[in-house]
Amino acid sequence: MSRVLFLVLAAILAVSTPALGQKVTIPEGTEVHLRLLGDLSSATAQVDDQVRFKVVDDVVVDGIVVITKDAPARGIITEAQEKKSFGRKGKLSFRIEAVKASNDKNIPVRVNKRREGDDSYAKTGVVVVLAGVFGGLVKGKDVSIPDGTEYIIYIDEDRELDLSTRIASRQ
């Protein structure tokens, strides 16, 4: 019984583990699903702040896991403005830059995600008419992106991975 179990496990490993020195190409446009780690807000974010993500599902190419579930991904805040008076909304932009492949190399990705808060121009206009200059006290809304928000990113161009470094680090 234990010999059969051993043979089954060996067969599974042989199929899912690349040979020493094997290279795999992740095609350009391959989807990677990410989950935001931590809340983001235009009220507190600063340009150049780091944004952290983790991979939601394994990314498999030719039967080989090239990006593992829970692998880290990183981004950076490119624009952050908190809400302002006269109903002007907050702004928050960030760029997702790279995801860590299963051989511990960073893989550049492409996406530029931008969200904006809700405008309150109608409220401001009404208050300005009724209250004169005090209408400027009505503010727009800050942009808030909750922890756990998911994004789809794409591998920027064909990326060849040398998986021998992954195998060597596990031995």
Main attributes?
single chain, 171 residues, alpha+beta, six-stranded antiparallel beta barrel, 39% strand, elongated, disordered C terminus
How would you portray this structure in words?
This protein is an alpha+beta fold. The strands form 4 sheets. The protein has a 6-stranded antiparallel barrel with strand order 2-4-7-8-9-12. A hairpin with a 5-residue loop joins β8 and β9. It is elongated and about 70 Å long.
Low-confidence stretches: 7-19, 112-116, 119-137, 167-171
**What does the main sheet amount to?**
6 strands, antiparallel, barrel
Number of helical runs? 3
- With strands numbered from the N-terminus, the spatial order across the biggest sheet is 2-4-7-8-9-12
Q: Work out the strand percent.
A: 35-45%
Radius of gyration computed on alpha carbons: 23 Å
pLDDT averaged over residues: 75
N-to-C CA distance? 27 Å
The assigned structural class equals alpha+beta
- Fraction of helical residues: 10-25%
In one word, what is the shape?
elongated
Helix and strand sequence: HEEEEEEEEEEHEEEH
β-strand number: 13
Task: Write a brief caption for the model.
Helix content is 19%, strand content 39%. The protein has 171 residues and is an alpha+beta fold.
SSE map:
Layout: H1 2-16, E1 23-26, E2 31-36, E3 40-41, E4 50-55, E5 59-61, E6 64-67, E7 72-81, E8 91-100, E9 106-110, E10 112-116, H2 121-131, E11 144-145, E12 150-155, E13 159-162, H3 164-170
Antiparallel strand pairs: 1-13, 2-4, 2-12, 3-11, 4-7, 5-6, 7-8, 8-9, 8-10, 9-12
